[in-house]
Amino acid sequence: MPTTLTELAKQIGAAVRGDGSLSVRSCAGLEDAGPDEVSFLSNRKYVKLLSASKAGAIIVSAADADQAGERTLLVADDPYFAFRQAVVALHGYRQHPAPGISPQAYIDSTAQVGELCTIRPFAYIAPRARIGNRCVIYPHCYIGKDAVVGDDSVLYPNVTIYDKCELGNRVTLHAGCVIGQDGFGYATHKDARGEVVHHKIPQVGNVVLEDDVEMGAGCTIDRATVGSTRIGRGTKFSDLVAIGHGTSVGRHNLFVAQVGLAGSTQTGDYVVMGGQVGVAGHLKIGAMTKLAAQSGVMTDLEGGQEYGGSPAIKLGEAKRQALAAMRLPEMQQELRKLQKRIAALEEQLNKRSAT
Predict the structure, then answer these.
(1) Of the listed 140, 174, 245, 282, which one is catalytic?
(2) Helix, strand, or coil here: 85?
């Protein structure tokens, strides 16, 4: 629904600089926004786009406001969060189907389902499973025996929750997530015939997702061999994140797509991992650690630092090594030239010695 900038500014905690009576209806990026749309600038490398943007208003910080010229602005302390608030105000949240249980869903007679839940066709709720209030469960979801799903949680299509796993309140799992499949545990042993065989270790633990966890499509969380694999409160995963058995992920971690943690790893709070980061097993990663994309972690990491490369080292050193590696072909040519010069000098010295 359209609203004036003055009204929007009150909702997002910003100050209008310009025409507050301007009506806006939606949000868009700097390059795509039109005269009745709001955009934002939170990364200074995009300042160059300000002058060309056709947005009706742009959310900026006070530090960047002078770069925008005479155009209408919404000045906020945190432009990115203010833009988030504007999206909520102008677009709202995704609307789920109205509460109700489809007759095509299967709910075991011993399962418990809370009030005002939405359970769509072909969902399966196994014996003794417990579903909280106001949950939304989309088609083809499977919730195993003795599993728990907390209040206000949303399971998108084809989510699988294995037996005895526990989801806290307000957990969101996007399509295809699998919570609680067996961890990768085998004991290699020579049998009576002398053949070396990998013997499966029963995985008798579970997975616990704490409150406000959200996972993108296709994430997989191994159940623990014993005890629990745990994902801390407020942690958010992108797509295709894989967590090994017995791992403990701290609170408010952010993992980008294709991150993989081997078993029994521990991360502190507010750890950030870029895309395709790989972490070996039985390691400890301190709180507030940031890992650049494609980092390979093979040792414990001190918290509060930025790392990159494989094996992961302090990010500044990793950048220097990467730049040096880019010069390797040139350095190889220089080395060959030096080798030829040395060979020529040695030949001259040998001739002089011979005379």
Answers:
(1) 245
(2) helix
